[in-house]
## 1
Amino acid sequence: MALYLYEKRGVSMAMVGVIILISGICSAVSQLFAGSIADKMGRRPLLLITLSLSLLMFLGMAFLIGFSASIINIVVVYTLVRSTLMMQRPAISSIVVDLAPKDRLTETYGLLRIGGNLGFAAGPAVGGYLAASFSFAWIFGLAGLIVAIALIFTFSSLRESFGRSTQGVSINSVLSAGKDRNLLTFTLLSLLVFLVMGQLSSTLSVYAVSQAGFSTSQYGFLLTLNGLIIVVFQYPFVWVMKRFALYRSLILGAVLYGVGYLTLTWVGAYSLAILAIGLITAGEITFAPTTSAVVGGMASENWRGRYMAFAGLSETVGFSLGPLLGGVLLDSFPSQPGYVWGTISALAFVAAVGFNQWGKSQRAGQSQLGQNQ
């Protein structure tokens, strides 16, 4: 979407960032309510409803882009796509906590990420090929087809994993998880890291293609490499890291992210871009499954959807606000990548310091989060 708006419709990167931010705010609100709905209605019904809506929205995107509809109409449907996709997240995360032993949550989330990144590895390669050979409309049409396959699989194979909560869905119930100060602090620190993570598919795409001079296929390979590394190394790495306290994994992940994005300052040769992606992916392997395991360990049985939804705000807002930050930096310093990536990586380093203090306070208070689940 960032490339389409920037290259095909002439929208500035700063405005692209604003669009992604607005859509992210809408999807964040829908995600919050989805957490309560997942606890009230169950995981499976929510997934069936949101997958059906996602299918319709992706086909709508393909239609609008194919006929060069107005940017505002495309942005509205794009916002609906993001919202329906984000509503699936609390249900999926809660299913893992419902079914997995608590002492193996990190490993289980690692396995979930392997499955997701098999798709993430293939997606950019296919997308890069389509972008070079066909119109952007085909990319969104293919996304709709893939969602249709997921819908059929969910309907035929997925069983309900939760007995449902008696608490209704209201604004108070949606925001109640935020009253847990431990969860609130963790979510705010995670937001800093997700602001950095949010650069991968927006700021980095424009920087790699428009400023570093790589082709869309080369950029697609970088994302494919990211997914392949996760598929191969996610579970072994989690197995090694389970010997350490969870907060130390969070610190390491944040530091790797910071170093990886800082490396992009000197990207000229494609080999250095590959190195940067390797470091960024190492941060993702370390950080992402650990955050889910931490939240899963916090939540009581009837509040898993709400906790997952509230903590998921850090990712949703980070991936929405991150492109705006990156877009403003790219527009402000088009020939000074050090200012762009130095500012972005600094957020990760600040988060690492924060997680260190947060983790020590948990250990001092004998919290279950101070030790590996």
Note: The domain at 2-157+170-360 is CATH 1.20.1250.20 (Growth Hormone; Chain: A;).
## 2
Amino acid sequence: MGGRMYKGFKISVVMPAYNEAAGIEQTVSAYRSLPEVDEVIVADNNSSDDTKALAQRAGAVVVPEARQGYGYACQKALTSATGDFIFLVESDGTFRAPDLYKFLAYAPEFDAVFGTRTSKSCIWKGSNMGLFLRYGNCAVAKLLEYLHNGPCLTDVGCTCKIFRRDALHAIAPRFTVGASHFSPQLMILAIRSGLRCVEIPVHYQPRLGQSRITGSFRKAFFLGWKMIGMIVLYRFKTIHRVTFG
């Protein structure tokens, strides 16, 4: 059971969930088992299966998000957390709970730490990261890096990220994307708002249950183009730096 904090900091693990009964209980339990984790929050995005009940049984606090969409669920999860550091992950078992320690090693020095699933040595057999998704994510991430003067980026769609709470709350009012291309908006806003950002590799495992986006080549292809369009458009937006802390 968690709750011992990490070097005096409270740690929140948060995740969006929509019909994730296949993996939610195992995922929540994995993070709850880490002694540094003080709370696990699941944003239930109108699930019609047992996601809510299974998450609660595993020890998560479940908060509802009525607006349908991955981005809305992520926003709800992030803004519901009370920790000093807020760790955003998927609820489908694709990320390994011990990878949290990698993020905590960087978190005191940065305002935002982004995960990347495209490091070849960290991609597990059977995971949904074929050549198209891997190179596509790398290419779009490089576009974001160059157009927005970001740190070295190799993945634009990785949910796995950690934020300082004050930095996150400073940019949260600027969130507008409720759909599946929320991740690059989150990254752009963090970078352009003046947050100290860095990217680190994470293990990427086979998911529990069926993906509704990247499991389909057609949906993944159009999502990629939607991300590209937003990244280019944001190049011409004025985004003022935030102050916090």
Note: The chain has a mean pLDDT of 93.
## 3
Amino acid sequence: MDFKGKRVLVTGSTRGIGRCAAEMFHQAGASVAINGRDAGKVTEVIRELGGDRLVAAPGDVSTIEGCQSAVDTAVHQLGGLDCLVNNVGTWSTAGILDVTEAEWDRVMNTNVRSALFCSKAAAPALRESTGSIVLVSSIAALTPGPSTTFLYSVAKAGLIGMMRALTVELAADNVRVNCVCPGFVDTPGVGRHINMEDDVLRDGAAQLVPLGRLGTLRECASAILYFASDDANFCAGSILSNDGGCAVRVGWTARS
């Protein structure tokens, strides 16, 4: 995929899926704005990725002010925007009886508020470029998991609803909105989300994932790039579930 001349902002791009996506966009020729709460970490990532065609757009996008600041900085430094990737997110192990107001606010602000208000801030620039928005949800939004994924699932399902509503809102301006739903991706600390050691999860992936392994960061990020590419110009309101086949089971932690 060729992104020469394209301008991209990836929220939460100092680590994990977001960083990999930013790196792949950059390798494909795009100019990329790197976002994270820690400005020092943003600078470090830019240095590690090579610096050229990379700009810093730090900010805590769990706040409305942080969303506006990050988007405004990216648009100003990039000279416009062709794609917004709403990637930033956080996990919660709160079941229905454990959800507190503070935990609800933390999870919803990071996962859902960030996507809404970054999209709102970016909409004028994306309308001008007839660009696209990619939201990163989760398999947890599509199929049931253990009770410790309850609040996380609610938040990630909210992103799918937002994607559908944004599609209707922005399609008339030729701004496409789509959603990626990753499954188990091999990132540091992935096992803690289901109370399992990382090595144990990797060894037992054959029991959790029909394809018999965890996904790689590149395999997940490539779905983001596809939706942002010209090859996906007729995709709007679409969900790509890159989960190794988990969604077709009764639940995403169901064992064979």
Note: The beta strands are 7-10, 31-34, 54-56, 83-86, 132-136, 176-180, 239-240.
## 4
Amino acid sequence: MGVTAPPLTALLAMGTFGRPHGVRGELTFWPDDGHPTPAGSPLGWGLVWVETATGLRPLRVDKARSAGDHWLVTLAEIGTREAAAQLTKLRVLVPRSVLPPLAEGEFYVADTVGLEVRDQDDRNLGHVVSTFWNGAQDVAIVKSQNGEETLLPLVDAVVQRVDLVKKLLTVLWEVDESVDEPETGS
């Protein structure tokens, strides 16, 4: 295709290709957030990038149709089931420039990775090391200074503020500072 890959900071992971569908190269696309349309149809993305063992590979979305909680996509460069199977389990990234603008207070979950996490009392809870979709909501894995990991749901009831400039995620979170005493037998 002869297209130079953009820097990773210009791309956003949207999901993963699943297994082939049919014999003409169509394959499933599973969005990270579990919803089929929040960032628009994959057809509107045009050129997408997949992470392969040798680097980023560009692919052009020709067709896309919703199939419940996932999409069925046809790529210009893929015409057989065997070729589609080579893409199974590969991450799909899109240029941020093709995504709809964010409303005030909205953020991309991927942008929380690396942010310092502080609670409502300004206590440092650690920093976000990764995120995942658990089937109901996005979740951040927060690693504290002592190495402990906490799962933090990224929902309105918990997230108070995301400041990407200050690299700070402020949350409403109760820190359990009690120490369980071991039970002793009588």
Note: Residues 81-85 form the longest helix (5 residues).
